[in-house]
């Protein structure tokens, strides 16, 4: 494989399939809407090496303000976030910088004890796959599988690229390594097959718009309004799921949502979600499994092929 | 673009705990409960920034937040920031006096020379002077030589100590920016505690080659300047977030021991005529709770160290 991202006009990773008329998705237990929470439990390095495409910190190393702001999540914020999720009965699907297994095994154990899933968010959030060769990128995938297996006994199923950095071949080598779902694409509210050279990879609805870092720090939304938009997003998806099961994801960062001025509005919003009977409180891995087992993967693949051939 | 060197996949600090030696990892909720004087639940640390932004402040290697941003000569922000030193701070001082509060003022060292009357007003108000670097154009970073950074720290402290008559043992870097050796340089110059690091709601000890340095909490994202000038949120939104922050810390103090509630202010932000009454609203709300101990950050640091 050529380790260069050729310039092209389309990712070429999925075929078009309009929402109306899709094969129906039914979630386990007859639930309407799958809701999963994905805390990004991250480690940002104090003195990371530079990547020519992206400098890790806005200031020269050490950027102690931003470094310590992120470290807040691992000293303080994770506990508030976890308590809120415990109360609402949500397990987390941890988007994990896997080096955190080495740095903070206490946090990993607390998550594992609750039956939370771990998926990979790279080694550190200060190491990007930009400018990596395919072999280098394969090495970090192997590292992630091995680290998570050694520390938790879990076999990785999901992947969110570190800091959302990707190469055009990334999905192929994730699928080849046995990754079952990617969180890097935002084109749908239902899981969808991804076109890869081998294996069966699906895109799992993650979300930019529900992601606390985007909401608080890019959209500059207040904590209480974040609670409001979580509930509104939920209400609409819950209604839409009358026809066919959808997926709602709430991606979090404990250094943000775990701040004292933010946690209560978030906690109230997920309590609200958990109070609905048709909600399947689940994890990324379980959604991927249900998608395959229910035949949705094959049905969606067939529907896309039929649309292309003009038989649908 | 050439491929990354193989060393990009080396992780020399990938081991248990932090990837630097300044402090150990610690779960705030698993620590020995902190007890404040008179059994207070929350120590309220109000830290007002008093800043001078030189007209010729450099853009490299980065500007401190609030820096001048218009083409030279930037009349607009030079004078807007200076408003805080001429008028805004006195509005904040008046409010604090009306409430009978002794707090901290983090002051650029050059202010002692430029505006001695300002420094006198802070001292006469019973407040604590915290060193806030030399001026907002002198940011601390790893590109500074040790001698140069040491000279900046020493000069800032000399000016503030001589001007205030206080020992000045607390530090807040401009933009909360540090180089690799800043903590050593601070301790060498008699600094005992520092407000730069944003990773905790309680004080904790940092290691330096010159002795310990106590990291004191200072809220980052409920800072008046961050809420108004970075997040562009309204004053009522700021009030709500500060109240919500207090509520959670106050609640936790019932189960986990004392907490520090920090309220960072800027004389050129909260000292604006239309904003100061929102500050009053925040203070009224917090102070109507029992078990709130209002003190300068240095006294909170001392109370913490006594029980360590």
Please give a quick description of this structure.
Chain B: Is involved in generating a small heat-stable compound (Nod), an acylated oligomer of N-acetylglucosamine, that stimulates mitosis in various plant protoplasts. The complex is a heterodimer of chains A (312) and B (308). Chain A has 312 residues and is of the alpha/beta class.
Structure notes:
The complex is a heterodimer of chains A (312) and B (308). Chain A is an alpha/beta fold. Chain A has one domain: Glycoside hydrolase/deacetylase (TIM Barrel, Alpha-Beta Barrel). Helix content of chain A is 42%, strand content 12%. Chain A is built from eleven helices and nine strands. In chain A, helix 1 (64-88) links the parallel strand 1 and strand 2 (93-96). The longest helix of chain A has 25 residues, at 64-88. The radius of gyration of chain A is 19 Å and the shape is globular. With 308 residues, chain B is of the alpha/beta class. Chain B has one domain (32-306): Glycoside hydrolase/deacetylase (TIM Barrel, Alpha-Beta Barrel). Chain B has helices spanning 75-99, 110-114, 116-124, 146-164, 182-188, 224-230, 235-256, 276-287, 297-306, and strands at 42-50, 104-107, 128-131, 170-171, 193-194, 204-206, 213-215, 259-266, 292-294.
């Amino acid at each position: 494989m050529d380790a260069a991202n050729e310039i092209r006009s389309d990712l070429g990773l999925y075929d078009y399939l309009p929402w109306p008329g899709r094969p129906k998705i039914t979630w386990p237990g007859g639930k309407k809407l799958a809701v999963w929470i994905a805390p990004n439990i991250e480690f940002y390095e104090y003195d990371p090496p530079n990547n020519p495409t992206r400098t890790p910190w806005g200031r020269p190393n050490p950027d102690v303000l931003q470094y310590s702001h992120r470290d807040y999540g691992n000293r303080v914020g994770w506990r508030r976030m976890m308590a809120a999720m415990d109360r609402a009965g949500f397990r987390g699907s941890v988007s994990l910088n896997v080096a955190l297994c080495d740095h903070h095994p206490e946090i990993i154990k607390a998550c594992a004890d609750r039956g939370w899933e771990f998926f990979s968010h790279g080694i550190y959030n200060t190491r990007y796959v930009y400018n990596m060769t395919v072999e280098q990128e394969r090495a970090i995938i192997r590292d992630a599988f091995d680290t998570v297996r050694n520390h938790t006994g879990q076999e990785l199923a999901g992947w969110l690229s570190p800091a959302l950095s990707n190469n055009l071949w990334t999905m192929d080598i994730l699928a080849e390594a046995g990754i079952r779902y990617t969180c890097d694409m935002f084109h749908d509210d239902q899981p969808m097959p991804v076109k890869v050279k081998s294996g069966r990879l699906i895109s799992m609805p993650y979300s930019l718009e529900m992601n606390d870092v985007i909401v608080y720090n890019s959209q500059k939304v207040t904590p209480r309004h974040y609670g409001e938009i979580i509930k509104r997003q939920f209400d609409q998806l819950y209604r839409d799921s009358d026809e066919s099961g959808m997926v709602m994801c709430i991606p979090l960062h404990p250094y943000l949502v775990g701040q004292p001025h933010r946690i209560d509005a978030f906690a109230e919003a997920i309590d609200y979600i958990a109070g609905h009977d048709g909600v399947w409180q689940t994890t990324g891995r379980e959604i991927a499994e249900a998608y395959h087992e229910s035949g949705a993967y094959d049905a969606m693949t067939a529907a896309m092929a039929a649309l292309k051939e003009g038989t649908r | 673009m050439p491929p990354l060197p193989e060393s990009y996949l080396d992780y020399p600090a990938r081991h248990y705990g932090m990837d630097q030696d300044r402090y150990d990892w610690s779960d705030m909720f698993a620590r020995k409960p902190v007890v404040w004087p008179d059994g207070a639940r929350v120590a309220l640390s109000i830290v007002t920034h008093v800043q001078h932004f030189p007209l010729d402040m450099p853009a490299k290697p980065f500007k401190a937040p609030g820096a001048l941003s218009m083409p030279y000569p930037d009349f607009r922000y030079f004078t807007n920031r200076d408003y805080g030193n001429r008028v805004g701070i006195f509005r904040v001082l008046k409010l604090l006096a009306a409430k009978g509060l002794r707090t901290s003022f983090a002051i650029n060292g050059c202010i002692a020379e430029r505006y001695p009357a300002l420094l006198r007003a802070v001292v006469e108000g019973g407040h604590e002077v915290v060193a806030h670097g030399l001026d907002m154009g002198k940011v601390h970073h790893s590109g500074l030589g040790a001698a140069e950074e040491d000279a900046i720290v020493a000069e800032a402290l000399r000016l503030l100590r001589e001007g205030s008559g206080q020992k000045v043992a607390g530090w807040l870097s401009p933009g909360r920016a540090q180089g690799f050796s800043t903590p050593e340089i601070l301790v060498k110059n008699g600094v005992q505690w520092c407000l730069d690091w944003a990773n905790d709601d309680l004080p904790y000890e940092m290691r330096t080659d010159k002795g310990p340095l106590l990291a004191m909490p200072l809220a980052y994202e409920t800072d008046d300047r961050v809420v108004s000038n970075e997040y562009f949120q309204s004053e009522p939104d700021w009030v709500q977030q500060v109240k919500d922050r207090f509520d959670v810390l106050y609640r936790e103090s019932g189960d986990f021991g004392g907490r520090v509630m920090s309220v960072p202010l800027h004389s050129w932000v909260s000292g604006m005529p239309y904003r100061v009454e929102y500050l009053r609203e925040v203070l009224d709300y917090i102070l109507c709770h029992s078990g709130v101990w209002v003190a300068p950050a240095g006294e909170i640091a001392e109370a913490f160290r006594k029980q360590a």
